[in-house]
Design a protein that fits this description.
The protein is mostly helical. It is built from twelve helices and no strands. It is elongated and about 95 Å long.
Length: about 350
């Protein structure tokens, strides 16, 4: 997630500036050919081209709106996880008491469940970052390698210290950790283990039925939010819907110089060459509109527009550990190079 208010020229160039290069080259090729040949059949009337451009702009705008909807839904899912995590820890801390069970044993059970919940957060995050076949980091050839390098520069290098801290904090004991080996969905099994421990506390008289039901309701909400996040991760933005947007932009950019050279040629020899920068600028705007939506439709792939799951997990971790009264609490995640992950 980009955290600065505006993008500088450097950030704009890194994101889409290289597209201006090939757009300028394409405009220059067509304009040069027309300038020296004056083949009138090369020109396209501006009216049909403007109709195509308007239709493409509407289509791309609507697609981008839907892509942003996926991103915003993902952020709301993690917002709900924040709220429910705090509620779960607070209820567990104050609801679970007993006059018959040793206080140290009860406290140990609370600590174990809260630690397991923190482990669930980081496990869910790791599962959501596994690349899907349609995401940018999974593309072939130069496009995939470019985005994998971008992922590495955004996450692995700047947050190397924080990722090492997560690995050094074993919130699960060795026996429990080993019991999850080979399971298809570790996050699901972690919540299932929480349900078992909660039922055991209820049977031992550490909470009444209403308290048990309320705590179980919150555990069920974690299943709900996990399922919603997995739905976004595993169900791609409809590929025909997204791919045709790319095709339409390519068609418009291809036709653009054939329409713009005819218009600028009417203005005189000296002004004709302005069709190159103006045409490249128009094409660049359409290309950037397309790739902004394209990079927004996958909010769990570890790139600029991602939901900052690492930061959210650390925020919840700090809150829950402080509820337990622990002193060895990690520091909040800070943005690196104006990007928060």
């Amino acid at each position: 997630m980009i955290v600065r208010k505006t993008l500088g020229l450097k950030e704009i160039y890194e994101f889409g500036g290289h597209h201006f290069t090939w757009l300028t080259a394409w405009m220059l090729i067509v304009c040069t050919l027309y300038y020296f040949t004056r083949w009138e059949w090369m020109t396209i009337p501006w009216l049909p081209l403007s109709v195509i451009g308007t239709a493409v702009a509407f289509y791309v705008g609507f697609k981008n709106n839907q892509a942003y909807g996926r991103l915003w839904e993902a952020r709301k899912i993690w917002g709900a996880i924040i709220n429910n995590s705090r509620s779960f820890a607070a209820m567990l801390k104050h609801f679970v008491t007993s006059d018959t069970v040793d206080a140290a044993t009860v406290q140990q059970a609370k600590t174990k469940m809260i630690h397991r919940h923190i482990a669930w957060l980081y496990t869910l995050r790791a599962q959501l970052l596994v690349p899907a076949p349609w995401e940018h980091v999974s593309l072939r050839w130069r496009f995939g390698s470019f985005n994998r390098r971008r992922h590495h520069l955004l996450l692995d290098i700047p947050y190397k210290k924080e990722l090492a801290e997560i690995a050094e904090r074993p919130y699960l004991d060795a026996e429990e950790q080993q019991s999850y080996e080979g399971v298809a969905n570790k996050a699901t099994q972690l919540i299932e283990r929480q349900t078992g421990d909660l039922a055991l506390l209820h049977r031992n008289g550490c909470m009444n039925m209403m308290q048990h039901i309320e705590l179980q309701r919150i555990l069920n909400s974690f299943y709900d939010e996990q399922g919603k996040a997995e739905r976004i991760k595993r169900f791609p933005f409809p590929r025909h819907y997204g791919s045709f947007s790319f095709v339409f932009v390519c068609i418009f950019v291809f036709l653009l110089p054939f329409g713009i050279v005819g218009e600028f040629s009417k203005l005189g020899e000296g002004i004709f060459w302005l069709s190159v920068p103006f045409g490249a600028l128009i094409g660049w705007i359409f290309v950037i509109m397309e790739i902004v939506g394209d990079y927004s439709e996958n909010p769990f792939e570890g790139l600029y527009n991602d939901v900052p799951m690492l930061s959210i997990c650390r925020t919840i971790e700090i809150d829950l550990l402080q509820m337990l009264g622990e002193k060895n609490v990690p520091q909040p995640i800070q943005s690196r190079n104006n990007v928060l992950m």
